[in-house]
Structure formats: C-alpha cells, structure tokens
Design goal:
4-stranded parallel β-sheet; 494 residues; 5-stranded mixed β-barrel; 16 strands
Length: 494
C-alpha cells in the first residue's frame, strides 16, 4: 500500500479545483491572458493589460543610435498640431512619444506604421501658449514601413475556443454561438464598404432571456468598443484624435441605423468596422448579415459577471482586427455566383416571391446584400482561424455551413410564428411552447374536419424528442388552450 501525505493530497485537490478556465482555451503564449482589469482600450499601459504582441512592440519601440539620436517604430496618431504626431507601439494605445516635423515636411497619414529618427527637444505645441513645454522627437528622417509587425503577432484563441470562452454559461445552438463569436472578430472593409458583421435575432424564445444575453455580451466590452468614446484624448496636455477602428453595437436596432449599416454599408460615426448583435422586429429582421431565430427549448442564459471576461476578450478582439485577410476579385466573383444560385434555390423551396431577392428583403441578391454578407462571414472566419488569405472554397463554406442554414431556420420559424399569430392572435405566449413540437404539429395536423390528428408517438418522432418530453410539452400546450385532444393520445392545434 502506498500512502500519500495529507498535505500533498490537499495540494493536488487545490490545483485541480482552481484550474484556470482560460488556460483550457488559450494557446499558452500569453501568461497573463486571464488577468482582470477595468481599464478601457486606449488607457491600457502595463503588463497584463497589454496583448503579448503589444509587449513585443514595446520592446522594439525606441532605440538609441548614438549620442542623442534615437529611432522610433510605431503607429501614427494625429494631434491638434498639424506638424506634430503621436507615435505609439500599438494602434490600440494612446501613450508613446510625440514627433515634430519641420514646416516643409508632410507628416505620415493617420494609422500608418512608420520609422522615424531624430533628437529629442523641448517645445511648446502650436496654439497652446499656456501649456507647459513637452519633450518631442524632432524628426530628421522618416519612412513608412511594411506591415512586418504581423510577424510578431501570435494567433489568439481560435474560433472554437473563443466561442467556448464567451458562452460557457449560455445554452444556445453551437452555430449561433459561433455567429456571435464572429461579431467580436469583425471583418475588414471591402470595396469601399465599412467592415464588420451583423446578426439580427428574431426571438421565438422569451425576449427577456434574449435581452439578458445581449446585456451579458455588452458588459464584456469596455466603453470605447461599445461606441462610447471621446473624439479626442488628452495626452500630456496635447489633444490626440481617438482612432475609430471598430465598435460592437449590442441591443435594439432602429430602422435608420439598420439601413445605414446593412443596406448602404457605411457608418455615420466614422468607424472602420462596425459589428451588430441586435434584437430585431418585423421591419428590421431581414436586414442584418445573419438573421438568427432563437427557439425557446434550445436557449437559456446563466448570468455571470462579464467583467471577468473583459480583458482576455479585448486582447483577442483587437488582435483579430490586426489581420486583413486578402481576397481576390476572382474569388469574390466566384463566391457571388455560388450564393446567387443558393438564393434562387431558397426562393423556390419556400415558394417565396421574386421580391424576396430585392434590396433589403429577406434573401437580398444584391452584391451588397447576401453575397457580401457571405464574404464578410468568410473574412471573419479567416480571422478566427488566423488565415491571411480567403479562397472561393472559404466563401462557399460560409454560405453552406453558416448563412444558408441560418436563413432556412429563420424562414421556417418566422412562418411558424406568423401562422400561429394569425390562428391564435399575437397575445398568446408562443415563446413558452416547444418550437420542435409546434413544428411537428403544424406539419402533421392535416386541418381536415373530423380528423383525429397525429398521435403522441408520431409527434415525438417528427420533432426528434423523447416520448416523455413530447408528452410533457403537449400537456402544457393543452392546459394553455393551444391544442385539444379529440381522442386520448391524439392531438390537434386549435
């Protein structure tokens, strides 16, 4: 017999019970991936608040040539002084070194990755006579660098692990979870259209539960990435323009906002990329890239404190958006043809009229409609798997595995709800009934006078649920007055 000392056993139990959830979903390159910090995006400065690649950029940010001459590599931020820029190690930071150009030299454009060299001097910014003097690098030479900083970026959590991290406490179909995870990855701008991804929820599930989900997702993001930002930041007394790179809007969707982002594909607020995760109604449900129908029996939310996810999700999200997967015009054309054929098949299989393909309608065959939605999905997926190129196969997969199934589910559940609303009235609590049972009944009940209706066994088989589950749900629907039992074990909808 081998005896294990009590203290050793306790250590093993403690190690197992305190196993960090984040370590199960990360690649292990960021030892501080699980740190919790309340800071906003552009206020991060130290250690755990920075992504691993940002720390590497810090290490290469400033070097000394000789004597008083220095060299800086970083990202450009414009300031109130047209001759002065702020250089930072990361585009997601607003702390670095100021650089001053001579009056006959044009500073590099905002957001560019540059290398500058010169000597530090003390000066007072133009237009601020009462401000104290600040230290700036007076530029002797400068150049725009290729995007080789991407070589310092190790892939963040992949799509599957990121989704698992976000939705450990949410009961929802895996496909829907992956759609919401892609919102955090966004998609880059394409063909002069704003980037980002949008998902609209038409809920047969309880609206209050859906709102709990949206509140949880909203709480994960810091204020700036939710679109609450100051146009300018004060950095050591200098006004610096706040970058408008990406925001995620969560909640309700006004028709005007939906049309701007989903139809016209531009953001009035001026962000490069905008993602939407919104609860839609009959006037906005067909506009987002991906319409999601959440059914009652497959959906639940166990609320946790979203602040504990804020920093790891933030570091992964800003990392995804450093990658701009390349896609050729040939791939876009091939993907568009494939999607158009799929849209025609959907129109015919659901007996929809031609108007369903029109701009802003359910299927939307315009290039800025479902074809572009599919390409945006492929771009977001590429970021999620850290691929720098998109092929026609990737676009086709995004249609066949994500958008087409979502459209089918959405159409089926919308038709079901519309039919029941017409039969029962809109006040009946449809969201309390099992959607699978409702679908099975609608399919099996012939509606003929004198027909006894399908049996319990037939309904359970059609719905794909256990017999006892079907019996429980049918009893609840019977008590609610949604169906009747003309003969024992036979059921018909009212």
């Amino acid at each position: 017999m081998i005896l294990i000392p009590v203290f050793q056993l306790r250590l093993r139990v403690m190690k197992t019970s305190s196993e960090d959830f984040f370590k199960r979903h990360s690649l292990g390159h960021d030892r501080l991936a699980d740190a919790v910090a309340p800071s906003d995006v552009f206020d991060r400065q130290f250690g755990a608040q920075l992504a691993a690649w940002e720390i590497k950029q810090h290490q290469n940010f400033k070097s000394r040539f000789s004597g008083t001459k220095y060299q800086i590599q970083g990202f450009v931020h414009l300031t109130q002084d047209t001759r002065m820029i702020l250089i930072t190690p990361s585009p997601w930071l607003l702390e670095g070194e100021f650089a001053l150009f001579s009056s006959d030299t044009e500073p590099p454009p905002d957001g560019s990755f540059v290398e500058i060299s010169g000597r530090f001097v003390t000066t007072r910014p133009a237009g601020t006579p009462k401000s104290p003097d600040i230290r700036v690098l007076y530029v002797d030479e400068h150049s725009t660098l290729p995007e080789d900083y991407l070589d310092n970026i190790e892939p963040p959590m992949n799509l599957r692990n990121f989704s698992a991290l976000l939705f450990e406490n949410v009961g929802m179909a895996e496909a829907s979870k992956r759609v919401f995870a892609r919102l955090f990855m966004s998609s880059p701008p394409l063909q002069d259209n704003v980037g980002g991804l949008s998902a609209g929820i038409q809920a047969i599930a309880s609206n209050s539960q859906v709102k709990r989900l949206l509140s949880f997702i909203r709480g994960i993001l810091p204020p700036t990435l939710r679109g609450r930002w100051n146009a300018k930041h004060n950095v050591r007394g200098i006004s610096v323009l706040t970058p408008r790179m990406w925001r995620l809007s969560i909640g309700q969707l006004r028709r005007q906002t939906a049309e701007a982002l989903c139809l016209k594909r531009f953001d009035p607020r001026g962000f490069r990329e905008v993602s939407l995760g919104v609860l839609t109604d009959s006037t906005t449900s067909s506009l987002p890239d991906i319409p999601l129908a959440l059914a009652h029996e497959d959906f639940w939310v166990e609320m946790k404190n979203p602040a504990h996810l804020q920093l790891p999700v933030l570091k992964s999200s800003i990392t995804y958006q450093m990658l701009f997967p390349k896609i050729s015009q040939r791939t876009i054309d091939a993907g568009t043809k494939y999607v158009l054929a799929g849209l025609e098949d959907l129109k015919e299989s659901f007996a929809l009229d031609d108007a369903s393909l029109a701009r802003g309608h359910l299927l939307d065959a315009d290039i800025k409609g479902r074809p572009l939605s599919t390409i945006r999905l492929a771009q977001s997926s590429a970021r999620g798997w850290w691929n720098d190129k998109i092929t026609a196969k990737d676009v086709k997969r995004s249609w066949s595995h994500i958008l087409e199934p979502a459209l089918k589910e959405f159409i089926e559940l919308t038709e079901l709800q519309n039919g029941l609303d017409a039969a029962w009235g809109k006040d009946r609590p449809i969201h309390k009934f099992n959607t699978k049972i409702l679908r099975a009944l609608r399919k099996l009940d012939t509606g003929k006078k004198g027909d006894l209706g399908p049996t319990l066994e037939e309904i359970a088989a059609e719905a794909g649920v256990e017999r006892h589950v079907a019996a429980r749900e049918l009893l609840a629907m019977k008590d609610s007055g949604a169906l009747y039992e003309p003969r024992n074990g036979h059921y018909r909808l009212v």
